[in-house]
């Protein structure tokens, strides 16, 4: 029988391999997979929940990878993670991510955080336009 996610959180919340604790920071950061906000809290934890969502940039820096944990494959770690790659534009990707979360009824509480993460990744992948250097003025 599996333990509840609340019990798992009580066990790992103070000490796990993914935590980054620093002085003068009230909430420690987390480096775990499928943690959308990179904060060590129960809501965003990718370790303790049977359903999790993760958004990462794609390998070729053109799009995002939507990773999710399958609850039915919880005891088969190699098969438990599914991935969908979105390489279309930002608006289309936002719509697709929203549709996947809503259609599968998959952690609707993480929907806004996932959309913010997608937007931030696309913003970072956008190339900045080259600055035009002004033509040298002729002084006669």
Automatic annotation (TrEMBL):
Protein name: Large ribosomal subunit protein eL28
Secretion signal span: none
Statement: the UniProt record of this protein carries the keyword Electron transport: no
Domain Ribosomal eL28/Mak16, chain residue ranges per copy: 7-124
GO cellular component: ribonucleoprotein complex; ribosome
GO BP terms in the entry: translation
InterPro entries hit by this protein: Ribosomal_eL28, Ribosomal_eL28/Mak16
Pfam families assigned to the protein according to its UniProt record, in alphabetical order: Ribosomal_L28e
Organism (species): Chironomus riparius
Keyword Ribosomal protein: yes
Region described as Disordered: 121-140
Entry GO MF terms: structural constituent of ribosome
Family: Belongs to the eukaryotic ribosomal protein eL28 family.
């Amino acid at each position: 029988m599996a333990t509840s996610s609340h019990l798992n959180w009580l066990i790992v919340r103070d000490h796990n391999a993914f935590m980054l604790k620093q002085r003068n920071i009230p909430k420690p950061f987390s480096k775990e997979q499928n943690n959308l906000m990179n904060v060590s809290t129960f809501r965003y934890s990718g370790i303790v929940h049977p359903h999790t969502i993760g958004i990462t940039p794609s390998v070729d820096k053109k799009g995002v990878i939507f990773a999710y944990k399958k609850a039915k494959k919880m005891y088969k770690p190699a098969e438990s993670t599914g991935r969908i790659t979105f390489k279309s534009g930002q608006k289309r990707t936002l719509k697709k991510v929203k549709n996947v979360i809503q259609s599968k009824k998959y952690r609707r509480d993480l929907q806004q955080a996932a959309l913010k993460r997608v937007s931030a990744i696309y913003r970072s992948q956008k190339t900045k336009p080259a600055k035009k250097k002004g033509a040298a003025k002729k002084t006669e």
